[in-house]
Design goal:
The protein is of the alpha+beta class and about 130 residues long. It is built from four helices and four strands; from the N terminus they run ααββββαα. The protein has a two-stranded antiparallel sheet. Strands 3-4 form a two-stranded antiparallel ribbon.
Length: about 130
Amino acid sequence: MKGPIFIYYQLENFYQNHRRYVKSRSDKQLKYKADADDTGSCSPEANTDKGPIVPCGLVAWSLFNDTYKFVMQNKAVDVSKKNIAWESDRNHKFGSDVYPQNFQSGGLIGGANLETSKPVSKPSLFITIQDVTS
């Protein structure tokens, strides 16, 4: 087969459609810098003593590291997680001027390290997890 080859897989017993999980996010906050304080629907992960968490909510905190490996003719095949989000999602659902803040602050730590110098529209894996509930 010629590349690129796209792999899709399904998780079982991962309750991303549970009512509390699905509602715990702010689409406005992810799209518009001016709406960083829009955390009303993000409970229980909405604010720290330093201010609003961007991105807020359980959906943002559920980034995980799933480990897998592909082998062809006894050689490991490189797997890239770059540019896996739809271009329309990167350009229209997530603001290019919205930067993570307070995500790794306080007593609890989010599901992954989001670089404060990169807007939420850049980490493709973050966008694909967010789109599960859209």
